[in-house]
């Protein structure tokens, strides 16, 4: 019984190894056999089982094998069942604890950004009192979270949005279509968005996008603090911390 179990486990491991070797490119049995150090006969049997279940398909042009539609269906179903809030929660909490500031996870909701998660430091009591509870909305054109979604939406959609009459919340709010288009380009080039007192006087924030397995921007994360605690020379440091946090979250999202 134990021998049968061991053989089954070994076969499963080998089958998964075959899928990993094929990855994003088609390969023939000889190449797979060489890479896994398995006999061609063993690889052939594994391939035929995987092919029967649509986990691999054979290219009729060169007889090589590539990943099949069954794997794509599994991936899509898996991504659909991921709760981005629960995935992000421990990483965002760690970020808040590390920097001693408020952090948020947000998604786009029409012409606003909506907060899905808010974390505060468990070690520092100087937290900023923001109206950023879960469900709160913030404009796309003058908040760091909103600007992330503005930057990565299609050009046609952005143009339509920027034709609106945008509200100037402070003296720093950008409402010029040309300047906001330039801001979109700048955000995509450097990888982060900034809000320096554009929505609330004396409050600054920095945000980065979160991408799913397809590379699509599906959410954003940011940190917010009094502007005096975000001098220009600190921005690179905050960006590095946000980027590292985003990469950890994206890894769990399959990106």
Automatic annotation (TrEMBL):
Superkingdom in the source lineage: Bacteria
Residue ranges occupied by any IclR-ED domain in the UniProt entry: 70-255
Transcription regulation among keywords: yes
Sequence ranges assigned to domain HTH iclR-type in this UniProt record: 9-69
Keyword Transcription regulation (UniProt): yes
SUPFAM superfamilies xrefs: GAF domain-like (SSF55781), Winged helix' DNA-binding domain (SSF46785)
Endpoints of the signal sequence: none
GO BP field: negative regulation of DNA-templated transcription
Pfam families: HTH_IclR, IclR_C
Designated name of the protein: IclR family transcriptional regulator
């Amino acid at each position: 019984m134990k021998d049968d179990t061991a053989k089954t486990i070994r076969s499963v491991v080998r089958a998964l190894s075959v899928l990993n070797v094929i990855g994003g490119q088609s390969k023939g049995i000889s190449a797979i056999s060489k890479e896994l150090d398995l006999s061609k006969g063993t690889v052939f049997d594994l391939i035929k089982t995987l092919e029967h279940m649509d986990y691999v398909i054979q290219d009729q042009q060169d007889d090589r094998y590539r990943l099949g539609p069954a794997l794509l269906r599994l991936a899509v179903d898996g991504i659909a069942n991921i709760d981005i809030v629960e995935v992000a929660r421990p990483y965002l909490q760690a970020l808040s604890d590390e920097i001693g500031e408020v952090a948020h996870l947000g998604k786009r909701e029409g012409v606003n950004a909506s907060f899905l998660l808010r974390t505060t430091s468990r070690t520092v009591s100087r937290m900023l009192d923001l109206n950023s509870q879960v469900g709160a909305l913030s404009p796309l054109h003058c908040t760091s979270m909103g600007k992330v979604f503005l930057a990565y939406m299609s050009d046609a959609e952005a143009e339509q949005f920027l034709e609106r009459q945008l509200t100037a919340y402070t003296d720093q709010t950008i409402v010029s279509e040309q300047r906001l288009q330039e801001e979109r380009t700048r955000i995509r080039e450097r990888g982060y968005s900034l809000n320096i007192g554009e929505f609330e006087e004396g409050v600054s924030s920095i945000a980065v996008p979160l991408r799913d397995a397809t590379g699509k921007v599906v959410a954003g994360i940011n940190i917010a603090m009094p502007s005096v605690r975000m001098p220009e020379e600190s921005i690179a440091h905050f960006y590095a911390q946000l980027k590292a946090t985003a990469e950890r979250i994206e890894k769990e999202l399959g990106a």
